[in-house]
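Bug #77: duplicate submission created two jobs. Keeping one. Sequence:
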Amino acid sequence: MTHPLIPQIIEIATPVAEELGLEVVGAVFHTNQRPPVLRVDIRNPQQDTGLNDCERMSRALEASLDAAEIIPDAYVLEISSPGISREITTDREFISFKGFPAIVSTSPAYEGQQEWVGQLIRRDEAKVYLNQKGRIVEIPRSQVTKVQLDERR
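Kept job's structure:
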């Protein structure tokens, strides 16, 4: 379940990232840790996201979050990159990467194909859903071997 502060955090982080030429991909607040850890995933749309991007975002976002005073207690701010060829496995990642170009690999082949390329819509208990230029493809999860972001686009 998403922490109630996440929408506000993303609202604060998005313009900070844009000012640095970056994009916010998602955020998670791990309040079960002491101190709690706020992880914000960013992406550099111009090139591979590097350590320098994470450092710049960390400094800028820390100042903005402190000024907003929405997190009352001490916490650790962690900025990371989801990675381009990263495999998408968790429900949270499927939500975070909704609309992103993705590659779904299947085995055995589904409808004659072992690789499906499209925009990620979602997954449920039975299927992974992709948008292929307006056409919705429903791939049975039992045949899905891997889902990853498509770095070719």
